[in-house]
Here is the input.
Amino acid sequence: MTRIRLPYVHEYRDRHGKLRRYFRRGGKKTPLSGFPGSDEFMAAYRAALADIVVRPPIGASLTRPGSVNAVIVGYYQSLAFRELAQSTQRKRRAILERFREKHGEKSIATLPRSFVRQILDRQRPFAARNLLTALRSLLSFAVAEGFRADDPTAGLRMPKAKSSGIHTWTEDEIEQFARHHPAGTRARLALALLLCTAQRTGDVVRMGRQHIRDGAIAVRQNKTGATLLIPIAEQLRKELPATTLTFLVTEWGKPFTPGGFGNWFRQRCREAGLPHCSAHGLRKAACRRLAEAGCSAHEIAAISGHASLREVERYTKAADQIRLARRVMKRERDSG
Here is the structure.
């Protein structure tokens, strides 16, 4: 049967290896059954397509000026929001849409500080931090536009999160993944790109032959806008394909979306017995390696493109602690 490519249709393989498809548009995902072109599939596709055609645009159902609903719509159109990286815009929009669904009809001018505190207290630490960040931006916009006189989030402290965040790959885990996915596979190429460039997935999936300059990969980071030139390590050079314009492609030969790649790579991690590992964890592992090699925070940031040295300094401090501990142990052995 001839394969049909349709707009907004995405594919992935589930944990059982079965190929599944869904319609994605405007943040909404609709599962599609059947094979593309079949009556069952096309009926589901047309229904999903009709849904986005008849759905009113964001903000069309505003109830009244000055409502949370109205101010969120205005914030989306503001320069402050539009200047954010696309990935940050998507995350912030998702948070604010959930907030708007519950509180959209409330007047933003009368939202008390206690109300914001109660909402944050019902969240888990990381979710509370993300919500507070989004609300601060929204309410800063509200104050600047005259929708309210003060910012009820002012002075609220970020909740402490006990987790260390996304897991950083260990050397044993890197070796385990490499043993399971041999050289020449897409999984090994993905490992090399992530580990040898220290970039985010959104930047890695866009890399291709056209970005190579004098033995280095030129990267313009999507999130920060930073322009980097990253030397190509020998480990990566061996894995780079000679024919494809984009290095990482799907099984259909198409470039990955950041989300699609994340799901695909997570499945490759599960196959290697590493369900707790992720693509972003390799970015952290790359920074750890650079720190352990004696690179300074500024040198690591020159590769990773971190806008702030605060995150990078965690790796250098940990590496310094290990070096100092080893030096002390050596001194103890020599004196004994």
The two ends are 76 Å apart (CA to CA). The chain has three domains: 9-54, 68-144, 171-327. The beta strands are 9-13, 19-25, 28-32, 212-213, 216-220, 227-231. The mean pLDDT is 85.
